[in-house]
Amino acid sequence: MLAGTAAAAAAVASPRLIVAPARAAAPPAGRQAPGFYRYKVGSYEITVVTDGARSFPLPDTFVTNVKKDEVNAALEAAYLPRDTMTLVFNPIVVNTGSKLVAIDTGYGAAEAKPNTTHGQYQQNLAAAGIDAKAIDAVIISHYHPDHVNGLLGADDKPAFPNAEILVPAAEHKFWMDDGEMSRATPGRMQGLFKDNRRVMSGEILKRTATYEWGKEIAPGITSVSTPGHTVGHTSYVIASGSARLFVFSDVTNRPELFVRNPGWHAFFDQIPDMAETTRRKVLDMLIADKMLVQTFHAPFPALGHMEKDGQGYRFVQAPWSPAV
Ligand SMILES: [Zn+2]
Fold first, then answer.
1. Cα(147) to centroid(ligand 1), Å
2. What stretches of 60-183 adopt beta strand conformation (E)?
3. What does DSSP assign to residue 63?
4. Which side of the chain, N or C, has fewer Cβ within a 10 Å radius?
5. Is 2 or 208 the better-scoring residue by pLDDT?
6. What's the CA-to-centroid distance between 292 and ligand 1, angstroms?
7. 97 alpha carbon to ligand 1 midpoint, in Å?
8. How far is the CA of 250 from the centre of ligand 1 (A)?
9. From ligand 1's centre to the CA of 13, what distance in Å?
């Protein structure tokens, strides 16, 4: 039958026989399109503006309570390379119709160097047609450099010159407390204090206001208490009409590791047991409510749903849509 079909097709048209592949005339482009993605939550338009990704050799203690072999096995199971960790960064901008609100900022333009693949937020924001000057408010989920450093531009001036900066009260209190800073362990924690004091100063600090948990902090955007990753770590529910979106922030880092294995403790979880309790609670809530979730550290655009899978959970990316 197949032979008959082929013969019939050949009878209709005899295509030219290709004896050698055509030579490519165009050189490879070697770079990606700008990373932004839009979708709607009710009447609100959300734009995911990626800050890019950063890869480094997998540290022995990346997950503090399991062996590196297990982490590598989880990477392999997700078709990711062994011995390499790639972190991705997905801040969002919410257009409520009356306000433009950014949630988190990425590493910022100071990190955008020719050989880096992160610090791309500002260029992607511009490519998305959003003027940083038009942002009314920047909401910060927690004080880690991939979330706050982008408050500053490459020139160390405010990257969102007309925005009010809204930060979690508990988070701000902790990092600005001299006693806490004096008790910080050398290395990473001391470095974080130093970085946060650098960013949260001058013009940025003048424009900063603190918010509590469980409050509507911008139109339709409610802060949700999700501590553990840091003391004041915050997530959000964005509501418009009957539509709801959960903004996950860093309840987990890469879902292939920490949604899959909610009992795993990432080395950057400041209060590991509390982070795990929060993680399980949030994942169970998202599954029970079948709620759409925007994560920060899943592969771009990091939008989807959580579901139960064996002992752990699974992040299911939402399908790409050509229409907003
Ligand atoms: Zn983060």
1. 6
2. 84-89, 92-95, 100-103, 137-139, 164-168
3. B
4. N
5. 208
6. 20
7. 28
8. 5
9. 58
Nearest to 248 by CA among 260, 256, 259: 259
Amino acid letter, residue 80: L
3-state secondary structure of 70: helix
H helix intervals, 224-323: 255-258, 272-288
Q: Where are the beta strands (DSSP E) in the chain?
A: 36-41, 44-49, 52-57, 84-89, 92-95, 100-103, 137-139, 164-168, 208-211, 216-218, 221-225, 234-240, 243-249, 292-295, 303-309, 312-317
Ligand 1 centroid – CA 321 distance (Å): 26
| CA distance linking residue 108 with residue 149, whole number of Å | 6
pLDDT, tens digit, 9 for 90 and up, residues 33-62: 999 999 999 999 999 999 999 999 999 999
Residue 87 carries which side chain, given as an amino acid letter?
L
Where residue 115 falls among pLDDT bands split at 50, 70, 90?
A: confident
305: its two tokens: 């749903």
pLDDT band at 82 (very low <50, low <70, confident <90, very high): very high
Q: Coil, strand or helix: which one is 167?
A: strand
Place of tokens 């950063």: 54
Q: What is the pLDDT of residues 147-181, one digit of tens each?
A: 999 999 999 999 999 999 999 999 999 999 999 99
Tell me the backbone φ, ψ of residue 255, rounded to 5 degrees: -65, -30
What the block records as the tokens of 288 is 């029970």
Whether the per-residue pLDDT at 321 is higher than 90: the answer is yes
> Dihedrals φ, ψ of 297, to 5°?
-110, 15
Element (H, E) at 169: helix 169-176
pTM of the model as a whole: 0.92
